[in-house]
Amino acid sequence: MTETTDNPLQPADQTLPPTRPLRKIRVGKVVSDKMQKTLVVKIVTRVPHAAFGKIVKQIKKLYVHDEKNEAKVGDRVSIMETRPLSKLKRWRLVEVLKH
Fold first, then answer.
1. 53: exposed, middle or buried (C-beta count within 10 Å: 0-12, 13-18, 19+)?
2. CA 91, CA 77: separation in Å to the nearest integer?
3. Domain map of the chain by residue range?
4. With the CA atoms of 42, 45, 50 and 51 taken in that order, what torsion angle do they form, in degrees rounded to the nearest 10?
């Protein structure tokens, strides 16, 4: 009898489809909505300083694609990483959390 090291639950000729890597999700505040279908979202992260250990804020401004123009300035939004949509846009709007 021949021994196989394959998984007995899965046929040997069938392989798993390639999986898409996980996409980053961030929550931030809309700073600007003056462009068409584009938002500027401010992301604040709190990290310890490398040398001193004090907690400091790091602020990033990200350009976000908003297909329906539903978010306004001051809204808290959830955004997800996506393929490059333009020179600066690499994020898309998932949902508006708070108006």
1. exposed
2. 12
3. 25-98
4. 90
Angle at 44 between CA 41 and CA 48, to 5 degrees: 160
pLDDT tens series, the chain, 99 aa: 555 555 656 555 667 677 877 899 999 999 999 999 999 999 999 999 999 999 999 999 999 999 999 999 999 999 999 999 999 999 999 999 998
- Report residue 75 as tokens: 């809204």
Please tell me the distance from the alpha carbon of residue 50 to that of residue 85, in angstroms, as a whole number: 34
| Bridge partner residues of 39 (DSSP) | 64
CATH code of the region 25-98 = 2.40.50.140
